[in-house]
Amino acid sequence: MVEQRPPAAPGSFEQAAAAVRAIVFRDDLTVTEITAPQGLAPDALAIAGDVRSTPDDTEAPYGTGRLVLLHDPEEPAPWNGAWRIVCFAQAPLEPEIGIDPLLADVAWTWLTDALKSRRAAHHSASGTATKTLSKGFGSLASEGDGAQIELRASWSPEGDIAPHVEAWAELLCMLAGLPPGSEGIAMLDSRRSPRG
């Protein structure tokens, strides 16, 4: 019987940050480093991602998200370790999809499946999935009905950090309607309602 060892620790914060910065994302997901929130941990790195039909688009009508990598050698009790990833992903939907009673469950499953497919070992996961329906009135009536899905999650990563970031990127694309392996396939503007 072969004994399985737990994944190695991510190493230093500088090594983990370098691994995040070295990731090459698919062309329809534009990722940039942003200012990390202050006061959450001694070390933090934040990135933002926008799903766009082309890298030159100035808007992200298909989806947007953020990921923050936190490191605290004091190992805060809720983290059960020195590392924590906090992520956010949001995408507009057609109103017909937004009323699906299983939509929030599906969004959470996409995250857990993305982590599993990348072999991104983790523990102490938590999060919320929120679906929002909207209807314009008065001067906004012409904007019609809209829907949106939003997922906020956090977990304590084990092993290399890169697979966790890749899983977040996959989740963001899935929420935007782009299944894994769809790189290079044109997006249809008709999938999304004008409101989000």
Uncertain spans: 1-6, 185-196
What is the ordering of alpha helices and beta strands?
HEEEEHHEEH
Total domains:
1
Q: Return Rg in Å.
A: 18 Å
Mean pLDDT: 84
Number of DSSP-assigned strands? 6
CA-to-CA gap between the ends?
53 Å
**Number of continuous helical runs:** 4
Give structural notes:
This is DUF3000 domain-containing protein. The chain is an alpha+beta fold and 196 residues long. Helix content is 21%, strand content 32%. It contains four helices and six strands, in the order αββββααββα. The chain has helices spanning 13-21, 95-98, 103-117, 162-175; strands at residues 29-34, 43-51, 63-71, 83-93, 122-135, 145-157. It has a six-stranded antiparallel beta sheet with strand order 1-2-3-4-6-5. Strand 1 (29-34) and strand 2 form a beta hairpin. Helix 3 packs antiparallel against helix 4. The radius of gyration is 18 Å and the shape is globular. The model is unreliable at 1-6 and 185-196 (pLDDT under 50).
